[in-house]
Amino acid sequence: AIGFVPQETHFALDFTVADIVLMGRYPYLRPFQAESGQDRGIMEQALAEAGVAEFKDRPVNSLSSGERQRVVIARALCQQPKILLLDEPTSHLDLRHQSGIMNLLKKLNRQNISIVIVNHDLNLAALYCHRLILLDRGTIKRDGTPVELLDEKLLKEVYQSEVRVIRHPDRDVPQVLLK
Questions:
Q1: 90 near 60, Cβ under 8 Å?
Q2: 0.85 cut: is pTM over it?
Q3: Whole-angstrom distance, CA of residue 144 vs CA of residue 132
Q4: Backbone angles phi, psi at 17, to 5 degrees
Q5: Closest by Cα among 42, 25, 43 to 34
Q6: Distance CA 38, CA 125 (A)
Q7: pLDDT tens by residue, 114-149
């Protein structure tokens, strides 16, 4: 199974967090079939993995944007995916929530879930991803480790911007600065 987390999710109706996450089980149900105890157990596990179990009875729109993003990840986890696709999962989040989401994804990857992220934040990608694919006008320009890809000459060519690449002082990965 493949789980998907969109860049932005808006909830028109104020369902509870548990209801939102349980919606991830819908592909496994027949029309009008109620969720089973097993489905609810999977939902509880997804809530725990995403770190949102404490919010399960709260209306989803009462949560912060970082907490809501974790709920959407929990909904995808409720599908028990082998691959998790995420489109800009940290956009519009503060540093604390960016770190929290990326650490959660790293933990899920260690649990044998393949994680594929679309991300424009090169520095965040370098900190958390062991492999990057650099796209240029919709085609793959280069594929490799952050050290192999985050090169001043290559980035100038792709982004038409002057950059400086330095080493992160604690993690020994490249970080990109605008000149």
A1: no
A2: yes
A3: 6
A4: -55, -45
A5: 25
A6: 36
A7: 999 999 999 999 999 999 999 999 999 999 999 999
